[in-house]
Task: structure prediction
Amino acid sequence: MGLFKQLDLATTSTIDWEMTPEYTFGTFESWGGKERVRSARERVYYFFIDSWGDDPKLCLMERGIKHARVVAEILAPPEMVRSCVGKQGRVALFERSFAIDEPLKKWLLENIIDTDDSTMIIPIEKEDTETLSSSGLPHRDDPQPEISPISLPSHSVEMSEEDVTALIAKFNFFDTDRNTAGRFDNFLVDNGNNLTVSDRATGLMWQREGLDIMSNRMLRLEIERMNKEQYGGYSDWRIPTPAEALSLMEPAKNDRDQHLHPCFSAQQPFIFVAATRSPGGYWFVDYKQGRAFWASGTIPGGFGRLCRADTDLP
Result:
């Protein structure tokens, strides 16, 4: 029967054995390395190891331009999966998706690719496309209490681990690693356009949705386009700073498993922030894991949620 038929995928699909998590942004976001995939309909399939949980898992990824989903978990021998992870050496704490090694490739060819045995293949259902409903927030013009906005850092910076820890402590941001008792109190209001909300506590306007996963370069080109077209009626949208992004972090997860107010889309689990890491890398804020993290420049991709100064707040 074969792997692709069992997963109800096109039987003409093939595995790209050279594709790895490290190569994906170079391939799909048009920089360096492998030839770029140019068709929006094209799909590439590759195996990788997801090592975010207590036990690493072998998974099959379906990847396209602005499209990525895990389609199946493969029940490979646990000792082979752990051995592959053990060969990675020292890696950044938040880089936990790894390429497979030759023993796993051989095992997959012999046991999974052309087999009729489905017992080692666990399909993963597609998630429903999210449609944002009413924010449930007061309208910006409704009577509201007096609030003195807190001024947060708003310029791109280079930050060390110690700098981020100090920033979180200074503003008492919640972070599952650095400040589990933290809490920053927002006062979000609905701007009535189903696109944005504003935070009277910080004076910032935010996208309710956000931008799909892309490279840093492509993200900046998308911001240029949005500002040219005046998204939401404004032309000064930008990437938030670490402090601004962390100001949205909530101690408790919402019903979509993220540390965010439910008025925001859950399709952007971690976002770029306007900060590089000293001595190297990029900083991100992760609402699913509830923390700030950094990743090396070899995997420079992420989601976006933009902000701007809302100078018209009452």
